[in-house]
Amino acid sequence: MSLPYAADAETSLSPSELSVLRMQYHSELSSGHATTQTKFNYAWGLVKSTRRDEMAAGVDLLTDIYRSDPPRRRECLYYLALGHYKMGNFEEAKRFNAILIDREPNNLQAQSLAQLIEKGVTREGYIGMAITAGAAAVGGILLAGLMRRRR
């Protein structure tokens, strides 16, 4: 099965498309058991969502499939990494993607995702440094103000 490039993660399904997958999944569940394919399709749709709660639900479903259906692990690794990446859980994303790259070193989708994850880690690092610098500046201003008052 060919997997989409990681850039495809930025394109979410329409609400009606996701609704079709949701209805199929819940219909099968109410009949007793959702097939792995239906569960996977719904998880994939959730991971592609722009809503964090839906992405998290997709990651949970993929985790269940990963644990219970070893033949589907390859697909799950990629989408688990993708879901974690989209939620900003870069260490988890790296971990799942690294497992896939270890198994398939020439996997272009995993290589593409690895680049996106690294950019996310770098961006997060810059944001963290800016927040720290801002907090230090505010702290310095407050401290200077307190010292002036004591004089």
Task: Explain what this protein looks like in three dimensions.
With 151 residues, the chain is mainly alpha-helical. It has a single domain (6-150), classed as Serine Threonine Protein Phosphatase 5, Tetratricopeptide repeat, CATH 1.25.40.10. Helices cover 77% and strands 0% of the residues. The protein has helices at residues 15-30, 36-47, 52-68, 73-87, 90-103, 108-150. The model has no long low-confidence stretch (mean pLDDT 85). It is found in: Mitochondrion outer membrane.
Beta content = under 5%
- CATH superfamily label: Tetratricopeptide repeat domain
**Spans with pLDDT under 50 lasting ≥5 residues?**
none
> From the structure provided, what is the oligomeric state, counting identical versus distinct chains?
single chain
Find the CATH topology.
Answer: Serine Threonine Protein Phosphatase 5, Tetratricopeptide repeat
Number of DSSP strand runs: 0
Shape: elongated
Radius of gyration: 21 Å
CATH architecture: Alpha Horseshoe
Could you give the distance between the termini? Answer: 73 Å
- SS-based structural class? mainly alpha
Helical stretch count?
A: 6
Order of helices and strands: HHHHHH
| Mean pLDDT figure | 85
Domain module count? 1
Largest sheet: none
For the record, what CATH class applies?
Mainly Alpha
